[in-house]
Amino acid sequence: MTPGAGKDNAGEKLQALEQKFSIHRKCAQAVSPDGRIIISRKGWYVRIATLAAMILMASYHIYLGLMLHDMLVVYATLVMVHSILVLSVGWFFYRNPAKGKAGNELVSVIIPAYNQEGMIEVVIDAIFRSTYPNIEVIAVNDGSKDGTKDILNLLAKKHPSLKVIHKKNEGKRKAVATGFYVAKGKYVILIDSDSVVDENAITEFMKAFNSNPMIGAVVGQAKVWNANKNMLTKCQDAWYDYAFNIYKICESSFGNVTCCSGCLAGYKREAIADFIPYWAASKIQYSDDRALTNFAIGSADFKKSFSPLVEKLAESMSKYDDSEDRMLTVQSLIEWKAVYVASAIVYTDVPEKLKGYLRQQQRWKKGYIRSNFFASVFFWRKNPLMSLIFYTDFMTTFTLPLIIFTVLFYEPFILGQYWSPVIFLAGLFLMGLSQGLDYKFRDKTSTNWMYKPLMNLMSVFVLSWLLFPSLWTLKKNEWLTR
Predict the structure, then answer these.
(1) Pairwise CA distance, residues 50 & 54, whole Å
(2) Residue 405 placed within a domain
(3) Is 73:64 a contact under the CB 8 Å cutoff?
(4) Mind giving me the DSSP string for 133-159?
(5) What is the radius of gyration, based on Cα positions, of the chain?
(6) 254 domain-assigned
C-alpha cells in the first residue's frame, strides 16, 4: 500500500468514525452543584423498593440456612448481600469530587498504541480539543504492524506539540513506562488508543485533583460509543453504566476506587513514580519457574514501605500487561485516595464479537486476580465497610461457581428446597432490572438499559466460569483484547 493510499484510507475511516461519534457522544446524565448524580423522584422510589425487596430475599435465604443448620446455604447469599452494600453506599453517599479549580499545572497525556490505524487520529484530535490549556501529549507506538506509525508521523505535523515515540513491541505496560519517563507534567493522564475523551474531561480531572491534596488517582466515566452495533454491545453498554455509575461510585465514596480504567485514568505523578521502575525493568517470563526474581529497582522509601510479601506481589504483578490499570491504581491506594469523576466522560470502543469479548473478559479477570491479591494484604486497613465490600467481592470471584451449584443443585435436589433456584434467579433479574432502570432514570437518552438483566445472567452463568481458564493461563502475558 502506498503512503498516499494509506492516507486516503485513514481519512475515510476517520470520517466514518467521526459520524459514528457524533451520534453516540451525548451523555445526558448530569451532576448537581453539590456533586450528586441527578436522578428523578421516581428513580428514588425504585431504588428504595429495590433495596427493600433484596433485603427481604437475602434475609429469607439466611433464615433458611440457619434453620437447616447449613452454612453453605447461608454463604450462597453472599452475592445479594454484596450487591445490597454496593447499591446502598453508591446511591446514598457518592459526591462527585470535581469541586476545585482546574488551575494550570502541566498535564502529560500518554496514549500507548498498538495497531490502531482506524482510530488513533480521532483519539488524538479529541485530546487537542480539550478545554484544559496546559497539556503535553505523548503517543507511544508499541511496534504496530499496520499503518499506525505513518498516521502518528502525520499527526505530529498536524499538532506540533505532539510527541511521538516509536519502539519495538514489548507490551502496554512498557509503552506506558516509556511515555512516563518522557513526560514532564506533575499530573499524568492515560488514555487508551481506542478511547475518545470529551473536551471537558481533563479539566474535570484537574478540578478533582485540586479539591483534595490526598487524591492520587482519578478515573472518568466510560461510555460505549459503538453501543448500538448489536446485542452484545448493547449488553456491554448496560454493564459499563453499572461498573462506573454504581460500583465505582460506591468505591469512590470511600476514596478507594480499585481500578482506574485505562480508557481514561489520571495520576498525580508522585503517587506512581516509584512503581514505574518495576514496569520498566521487569522481564516477561514464559517458563514454568514460579520463583520470583529479586528486585533492586525502585526508590529506597518505596521499598521500606513494603513488607517482603507485598514487594514480591508488586514485582510479580508488574510483569503482566493484563492488569496495568488495576496495578497502578491499587499501589497508589497505599498512601493516596482514588476517586471516580462522574463529570469526566470518555467514549470507548468495545468488542463486537463474542470471541473477542470473552478474550477481553478473561484478560481482565486475570488482571483482577493479580491486582486484588496485591491489594488484599493492605486493604483491611481501609474503611471497615469498604474493606468488607472489597473482600466480599474478591471471595465471590472464587466461589461463585460453588454458589451457583449450591443454589441450583444442592438446595433443591439434596435439601428439597425447590424454591431456592427460583428465588436466586428472581434476585438476579430484580438486581438487573433495578440497575437498568437506574440507568434510564439518570440518563433519559439511554436505550440499552433493558439489557442489564440479560447481562447479569451472562455474568453469572458465563463470565464467572472464566475463572478457571484465567487461573490456568495466569502466567501468560498479553495486552491485546480482540
Answers:
(1) 6
(2) no
(3) yes
(4) --EEEEEEEES-SSSHHHHHHHHHHHS
(5) 22
(6) yes
Shortest CA distance to 91 belongs to which of 34, 33, 48? Answer: 48
Question: What is the C-alpha end-to-end distance of the chain, expressed in Å?
Answer: 24
Which residues of the chain carry a pLDDT beneath 50? Answer: 1-8, 10-11, 14, 21-24, 283-310, 318, 321-322, 479-482
Count other C-beta atoms under 10 Å from residue 161's C-beta. Answer: 9
- Class of residue 136 by CB neighbours under 10 A (exposed 0-12, middle 13-18, buried 19+): middle
* 113 Cβ neighbours under 8 A, 6+ residues apart: 120, 139, 140, 141, 142, 144, 148, 152, 175, 193
How many residues comprise the chain? 482
Phi/psi zone of residue 456: left (φ > 0), alpha (ψ -120 to 50 degrees), beta? alpha
Q: What residues pair up with 111 in beta bridges, in sequence order?
A: 139
Task: Give backbone dihedrals phi and psi of 145, rounded to 5 degrees, phi first.
Answer: -105, 0
Cα separation, 243 vs 222, in Å, equals 9
Closest CA to 106 of 47, 189, 49, 179: 189
C-alpha span between 432 and 436 (Å, rounded): 6
Q: Write phi, then psi, for 383 (nearest 5 degrees).
A: -50, 130
SS3 state of residue 338: strand
Q: Are strands 187-190 and 265-268 parallel, antiparallel or unpaired?
A: antiparallel
Q: What is the pLDDT of residue 301?
A: 44
Task: Supply the pLDDT for residue 89.
Answer: 94
Integer Cα distance of 31 and 39 in angstroms: 9
Residue that the C-alpha cell 508488574 belongs to: 318
Residue 334 has φ and ψ, to the nearest 5°, of: -60, -40
Alpha-helical runs (H) found in 222-353: 231-242, 249-252, 269-272, 276-281, 300-304, 308-317, 324-332
Q: What is the CATH number of the domain that holds 332?
A: 3.90.550.10
Give the per-residue pLDDT at 249.
Answer: 95
Strand partners, 164: 139
Q: How crowded is residue 296: how many other Cβ atoms within 10 Å of its Cβ?
A: 7
314 in Cβ contact with 331 (< 8 Å): yes
| Predicted local confidence at residue 19, as pLDDT | 54
400's grid cell? 461463585
Q: Tell me, yes or no, whether 307 lies in a domain.
A: yes
Query: How many alpha carbons fall within 13 Å on the CB side of residue 406?
Result: 18
Grid cell listed for 405: 451449584
Q: Nearest to residue 151, comparing CAs of 130, 166, 167, 168?
A: 166
Indicate whether 27 belongs to any domain: no
Range of the domain at 180: 107-353
- What is residue 370's predicted lDDT score, i.e. its pLDDT? 75
Does the model's pTM come out above 0.70? yes
For the chain, the domain total comes to: 1
Cβ–Cβ under 8 Å, residues 360 and 233: no
Which residue from 272, 254, 176, 267 is spatially nearest to 219, judged by alpha carbons? Answer: 267
Going by C-alpha positions, the residue among 122, 76, 57 that lies closest to residue 405 is 76
